[in-house]
Amino acid sequence: MAFYKSLRNIYVQIIDDIEGRTLCGLSSQSQAVGGRVNGLTRKSVDVATMLGEEIAKIAGSRGIKKVVFDRSRYRYHGAVKAFADSARKNGLEF
């Protein structure tokens, strides 16, 4: 699971490294979460928590239970920690 955040948005993808394809993905701009993101204060921690919840639901519906969390160069605090905690709470194992 690859995590990326820009100044305005957060992007998450679950990738199969062996086959080299994306299994599912989600961002703060996705239509699936668009209405919920606009209702938030747009703080990255709030958005990350909501995205962690949603990606765990999507992964669970596709039979994905375990992932390796690639947080790129981001330190494990703030939005990254909020996302990871929310995803774990909703069923993903890292």
* Largest sheet, strands/sense/barrel: 3 strands, antiparallel
- Beta-strand portion reads 15-25%
Poorly predicted ranges (pLDDT <50, ≥5 residues)?
A: none
Tell me the count of domains.
1
Task: Quote the CATH topology.
Answer: Nucleotidyltransferase, domain 5
- Roughly how much helix do the residues carry, as a percent range? 25-40%
Looking at the overall shape, the CATH architecture is: 2-Layer Sandwich
Radius of gyration: 12 Å
Give a count of the beta strands, DSSP E runs of length 2 or more: 3
Q: How would you spell out the order of helices and strands?
A: EEEHHH
Strands side by side in the biggest sheet: 1-2-3
User: Between the first and last Cα atoms, what is the distance in angstroms?
Assistant: 9 Å
Q: Quote the average pLDDT.
A: 89
**DSSP helical segment count:** 3
> What CATH first level would be assigned?
Alpha Beta
Indicate the structural class: alpha+beta
> What sort of overall outline do the alpha carbons produce when their principal axes are compared?
globular
